[in-house]
Amino acid sequence: MTGAVKPAWDPSYVAGTGLHSSDLRGAKKRLIATLSELENRATHSKHIYITISNRNKKPLFDNAHFAPPSAFDLVLFRPLASSRHPIPAMDSTKHVIVGTAGHIDHGKSTLVEALTGTNPDRLEEEKRRGITIDLGFAFLDLEGARLGFVDVPGHERFVRNMLAGVGGIDLVLLVIAADESIKPQTREHFDICRLLGIPRGIIAITKSDLVDGDVLGLVRLEIEEFVRGSFLEAAPIIPVSARSGAGLDALKQELLRSAQSVPPRDATRHFRLPIDRSFAMKGFGTVVTGTLVSGAVKVEDEVELYPPQIRVRVRGLHSGGKSVTRAVAGQRTAVNLAGIEREEIERGMVLAPPGIFEPARRLDARVTLLGSARPLKSRARVHFHQGTAEAIAEMVLLDGNELAPGASAIAQLRLEKPVLLLPGDRFILRQFSPVETIGGGVALDVRAARHRRNDPHVAQFLETLERGNREEILAALVAASPHGLSMPQIISRTGWTGGDIRQAAANSIEGKRLRVVSPQPWSIASAKSVADCAAVLRKAIEDFHRANPLLPGIPKQELRGRAGKTSAEIFHAALDDLVKANTVATSGDLVQRAGREIALSDEEARAKELIEKEFERAGLTVPSFVAVLEKLPVESRRAQKILQILLREKVLIKVADDLVFHRAAVARLRETLAKYRKERGERLPIPAFKELTGVTRKYAIPLLEYLDREHVTRRVGDERVIL
Ligand SMILES: Nc1nc2c(ncn2[C@@H]2O[C@H](COP(=O)(O)OP(=O)(O)OP(=O)(O)O)[C@@H](O)[C@H]2O)c(=O)[nH]1
Ligand SMILES: [Mg+2]
Hints:
Elements: H1 11-14, H2 21-24, H3 28-42, E1 48-53, E2 59-66, E3 78-79, E4 94-101, H4 108-116, H5 124-129, E5 136-142, E6 145-151, H6 159-166, E7 171-177, H7 184-195, E8 200-206, H8 213-227, E9 237-239, H9 248-260, E10 273-281, E11 285-291, E12 296-298, E13 302-306, E14 310-319, E15 322-324, E16 326-328, E17 332-338, E18 350-352, E19 360-369, E20 376-377, E21 380-386, E22 389-397, E23 402-403, E24 408-419, E25 426-431, E26 437-445, H10 456-467, H11 470-479, E27 485-486, H12 487-494, H13 498-510, E28 514-519, E29 522-526, H14 527-547, E30 554-555, H15 556-561, H16 568-580, E31 584-587, E32 590-593, H17 602-618, H18 625-630, H19 636-648, E33 652-656, E34 659-662, H20 663-680, E35 683-684, H21 686-693, H22 697-709, E36 713-716, E37 719-722
Parallel strand pairs: 4-6, 4-7, 7-8, 8-9
Antiparallel strand pairs: 1-2, 2-3, 5-6, 10-11, 10-18, 11-17, 12-16, 13-14, 13-18, 14-15, 14-17, 19-24, 19-26, 20-23, 21-22, 21-25, 22-24, 25-26, 27-29, 28-29, 30-32, 31-32, 33-34, 35-37, 36-37
Helix pairs in contact: 3-13, 11-13, 14-16, 17-19
This protein binds guanosine-5'-triphosphate (GTP) and magnesium ion.
């Protein structure tokens, strides 16, 4: 591969692979593993650049470049010393999303403005009424970290908007006003954060200017009591006043400290951007915004809008108020899309790589009910919120009729409209009416089947999906797929990358529990499915031989038909196994039991001899087959089969559909022609041929055409040339 490739120093491409200089020596294997993790990205980006650095992030090689989908042999590495390309400095800024939470009027938006200088309330109505209605956004640059704020409304009527904002946050800023302390939406927002598994947060006691030290102390005690035993138990509690500015610096310090503890997001995962806003911008067209929860996206990428599954192109990207060429997980991102009207987009849709996912209508999940909720009956209707999406759902318990407050259970959620989500995604459930948060959960299977109640297999399967490691989960998925699973099927079912999947499969393949039934495109099946299929094939072949003793074997296509509903890949793997084990043999398109010889009865053997003799004697003036049949001691269907055997053994040669010659006759003809050529030259008019061979015109033409095909003669005008 020649041609200069522009290098891109992008640490996220090698992040987490642990590929170090010392490993490079003989470590081609590791490198391939690393690349296979990237393979999946390669399928939706034109090129991938890899820079390999040593432990001190000093680049050693650059310009690793390969083309999709898995042409690893095209990877080009070049030592930096000979590189003409400068390596751009690494952007080490950490991107962290902070979400506010708390009761109405507790000062969330005012605090965000005091911290960032941006008033997150952007709607006219919000400004007029002095409340937040929909999500607002602002940024704060601290040393080494860029905080993106998602400011949510506290009003109980707008909790659904709050839910659309809280999905992708790294840390929560729980706002509690000193003069009011804990109020209903303080509890509800806090419950939501817990149910969504938000890992960390900071508590700000706002409006500290309105109370004296004693009250502040009391509020602090109430808060400590409130968060005891939760993820916020050890969180800093910081009194602040947006009015006086007190505590703002301390809060910034804590924000920075907390941001630093946020683990970097892995940009090599599949890209997902749940959309929270869409609008049309003059001169640009359609723009959507959201928190990039996973993976990365570049300008010019082709992406897909789910659930409608519309392919669009990324025309431009904005992150934190700047135009960028690439956005990664953990960033607030605005995407300018080409190929779609703003009206076609709504909150709750998701941008993701094209063609790899499938929106879910039915999911199996672990559901947890809040202690404060009322018991929830199986088949109850609920409001389902995930990411920025919401849908009405029916919750069907797998076991039992009712979920008790504070309890958790496996349930199937049947959504009234499709939503794109993946296993592991958390969601919130709200009571149908009156609408309030009652619980939440985590998706286990987004391609769930309808189950019979109390089916132990289902419970066991979902238990593995919930608690198993990737290897165990993959084994369970494959075991539940008698036709095997292709790479795209596993990706859409799990959200894992190609690299994850190969890694998860490796041990089981080595342990012979899983089989790669097709290397390209890669697909796997359980060893049992292949063995079961092989058993079916063996029986089908035996049955065939029994029913057709004179036929050499069963055509593959017919055998495939008798293999039941198995996939083509499993069929071929099973057949391969039988051939390798010397149980069956294939020749051309036919499959037979290995070592099988066609056993002829005495009568059949006599008939075969007779047919052969008749044709041999006839030479080129062959008898009609019907005439031969009359002399045979076997019935005509068998005689036909015997004829087939003779043709296969090449004792007889088929020249045209109804014209069969003995091989000796054809050999003599070749000799005759060779002699003619020597004595009389290469030109052979048809009358000469007829005279030479004694055949009629009826036989002469097909015979000559046969000789042409065999390259004994060539047609030139009306004549033949002997070659
Ligand atoms: N005295 C005092 N008033 C404050 C402080 N912070 C906010 N306020 C006032 O409290 C009121 C509500 O503030 P917002 O920031 O709109 O409250 P919010 O939590 O964003 O409200 P919603 O978004 O509607 O839930 C406004 O009138 C603010 O001026 C503060 O530190 N001290
Ligand atoms: Mg507000």
